[in-house]
Amino acid sequence: MTAESWTRTDGVMVAAAIDPAxxxxxxxxxxxxxxxxxxxxxxxxxxxxxxxxxxxxxxxxRGDDVVPGPTLATMAADLxxxxxxxxxxxxxxxxxxxxxxxxxxxxxxxxxxxxxxxxATADPLPTVTDDIHDARTVVLTPMHAHQAPLHATLLERAVxxxxxxxxxxxxxxxxxxxxxxxxxxxGWDADAYPVLRLQVDEDDRSALLLPxxxxxxxxxxxxxxxxxxxxxxxxxxxxxxxxxxxPPVGPRTGIxxxxxMRELTHRLLGDADDVAAFVAAVPGADPxxxxxxxxxxxPSGLAAFVAALGLPAEVTDILEGHITPDELxxxxxxxxxxxxRAAASSARLALEQHGPAMPVLEGPxxxxxxxxxxxxLGAVAAGIAVxxxxxxxxx
Length: 395
Hints:
Elements: E1 7-14, H1 20-29, E2 33-38, E3 45-52, E4 57-62, E5 65-71, H2 72-83, E6 86-89, H3 94-99, E7 132-141, H4 148-155, E8 159-166, E9 169-181, E10 195-200, E11 205-210, E12 225-228, E13 232-237, E14 253-254, H5 259-269, H6 272-281, H7 287-294, H8 298-308, H9 313-319, E15 332-334, H10 339-354, H11 364-394
Parallel strand pairs: 13-14
Antiparallel strand pairs: 1-3, 1-6, 2-3, 2-13, 4-5, 7-9, 7-10, 8-9, 8-15, 10-11, 11-12
Helix pairs in contact: 4-10, 6-7, 7-8, 10-11
């Protein structure tokens, strides 16, 4: 079958502890083509991506070819039994996963629960309402600079702004550091997209791309991309399993196989779509360098990504805590103010930005025009604040 016959299907395994190497060996023994991703600090959670055809059959290897194998439900049930894990696969209802390997006439799950019912839990999962996050954050956005004072006030923290050329346009780098509400937690206005957020905290180094505003009904963003340099990845190239004692190929390792199978697996389960999305969002970004950065882990991967996007090296220094936001050359820091003052600051910045395009008037008329312009810009600033509060309410 051709590469066009297969689509990526994602799933997760949840258990008390999961060994990614053992899962890779198990899938390889079943000749399944897959990609595993996990955080070293969360051994109970493993992401599993496989290829499936239109009929829901998993891609397996046969010689040098890839052919339909077991159904997604059968694969999920097999992993469930082999690793005593809860396996959730996109498009596979829980009752299908439980019933895939059930003997005829068996109407209950392994714990005696009726088929199609979820096991009861003693307590519901806690609801997290605290949005204070200790992190260093840099956001690249075309958002107008005059909106920064309002963001600082609504987030109740200082926001540092630096203008930066991206291709033939000018965008802004918004920077925060330390405990507080994250940039974007109240949402973004339409002119802020695409939004690219780089962030480092004690657990992760990550990039989040929001190419367009969220859907007003579902609150979902079409085409959003998330990448973590703390996550580890391993490819499974079907039946060609790891030989005993073979060393891993870096943090993002694979199970050795022929070049054709490796190319197919990486093309369909790799990061090509993420690379394309990042490059499309940042004009002038180097596609090959972005791809190489996404294949790395840790501080070096994030630093390579910043360089691949054409951002200044100081961005990496801020993210890694080597310098503070106010040490960013050419930047301006806006403190949190009362909303009225923030709106006035926003109006003043907007007037300065668009001032050269305004007609030059003499006498009393000029004062009324200026006051009218300031009043209009102040109304815009107030509208931004209200819109942010409305978005906050929806969350």
